[in-house]
Amino acid sequence: MSAHRHPRPTHYGLLAELETPEALIAATRAVRAEGYCEIDAFSPFPIHDVCEAVAAGKRSKVPLLVLCGGVAGAAMMFGFQWWASAVAYPFNIGGRPTFSWPAFIPPTFEILILFASFAAVFGMFALNGLPRPHHPLFAVPAFERASTDRYFLLVKSSDAKFDRQATRDFLAGLGAAEVHDVDH
Length: 184
Hints:
5 helices, 2 domains
């Protein structure tokens, strides 16, 4: 009888554990300066300098999704009103033309806002990868302290510059108390 071999879990990244917010700020800037792009930081409270360093060069796709959702909703509503009044049920009321577009503007605007709002909410969920009941960081026992008194910097293995040993040595050289492996 042969034993089943489980595939080795894929590596998610390396997590540097830091003791102070200043150390996290310095480490985040150093990692960014070194050329790493796929990074994330975790702390018990928001740190403005860290947020700027982590998001440097990244633009959100949510505004584009909102624009597309709004335009699609407006076009759909305007088209539906045109079809209903000029094609499916043309009705002459007081000599007014069947395609009387000024009357279509308020419902079109309302649907534009509705679809843009839905695009914002569902686009944000999709781009954030939600719902996600389990994240690979939850398997690192030390990460429980991220909400109390520790600061963590994650370098993802999907980064083009990522090399497991070189990145580990680099993070350790930044003053990390410990560098943890994070597996999927």
